[in-house]
């Protein structure tokens, strides 16, 4: 019997943990798999080990593991499969087929644009936009983000779009914010490419509270719940089941 195990990143912020689980709950309602469980890589419970154990207790004979992450990077490529490999040593007869994260998808950019419009009804053509990503030392993150920015500009026709990261790669969002404010735009829209509230969202809020400027700064909401996202997660689960790719951890020197 097939089980789908959704693996969320995890957050120290309780509200972020609850939002992730509530989201997965809604996704489970749209997916026909007989067994579905959710767990966290870190910072929250249940752990991956507990998630796997629950699937097997419920009768799973194969597990489709889906990283509930926005982009391919260290967590999706290394941390989650490494943890799964260790856990699955206890269940040598149960195959695990590993899926892809959400990745660069035009529909995600549509959600991002919708979040921008939640901050204001009409966006001036000359508005400055700062897209904020989590960041990663994996070069694939910056490549993916460059593609997200390209699609975003193509769809909105906005020219003044910039990218800043919260950690692990540059430009750092606070520096980029400072640089953009030196240009004294009338409006600056801060658009976080984050799934849920958490330490990173709180960090952006604190930075903006301390910022002194005559520019009108609009902080848009995080991506949060959207039916489009669970449609993509369902696709990732179907792709993984069809492809039957096992756990592979790239070697890092």
From TrEMBL:
Q: Does the keyword Metal-binding apply?
A: yes
Write one Pfam family the protein is assigned to: CbiX
InterPro entries given in the database record: CbiX-like, Sirohydro_Cobaltochel/CbiX
Which keywords fit this entry according to its UniProt record?
A: Lyase, Metal-binding
Q: What is this protein called?
A: Sirohydrochlorin ferrochelatase
What lineage does UniProt assign to this protein's organism? Bacteria, Bacillati, Bacillota, Bacilli, Bacillales
């Amino acid at each position: 019997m097939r089980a789908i195990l959704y693996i969320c990143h995890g957050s120290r912020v309780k509200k972020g943990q609850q939002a992730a689980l509530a989201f997965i709950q809604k996704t489970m309602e749209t997916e026909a798999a007989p067994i579905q469980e959710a767990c966290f890589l870190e910072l929250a419970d249940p752990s991956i080990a507990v998630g796997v154990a629950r699937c097997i207790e419920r009768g799973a004979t194969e597990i489709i593991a889906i990283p509930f992450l926005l982009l391919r990077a260290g967590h999706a490529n290394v941390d989650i499969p490494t943890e799964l490999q260790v856990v699955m040593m206890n269940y040598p007869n149960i195959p695990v087929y590993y899926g892809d994260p959400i990745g660069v998808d035009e529909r995600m950019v549509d959600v991002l644009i919708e979040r921008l419009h939640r901050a204001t009804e009409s966006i001036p053509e000359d508005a400055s936009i700062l897209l904020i990503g989590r960041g990663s030392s994996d070069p694939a993150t910056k490549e993916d983000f460059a593609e997200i920015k390209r699609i975003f500009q193509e769809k909105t026709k906005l020219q003044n779009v910039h990218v800043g990261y919260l950690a692990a790669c540059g430009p750092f969002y606070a520096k980029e914010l400072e640089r953009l404010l030196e240009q004294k735009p009338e409006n600056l829209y801060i658009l976080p490419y984050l799934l849920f509230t958490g330490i990173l969202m709180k960090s952006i809020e604190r930075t903006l509270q301390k910022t002194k400027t005559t520019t009108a700064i609009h902080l848009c909401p995080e991506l949060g719940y959207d039916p489009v996202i669970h449609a993509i997660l369902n696709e990732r689960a179907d792709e993984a089941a069809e492809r039957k790719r096992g756990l592979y951890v790239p070697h890092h020197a």
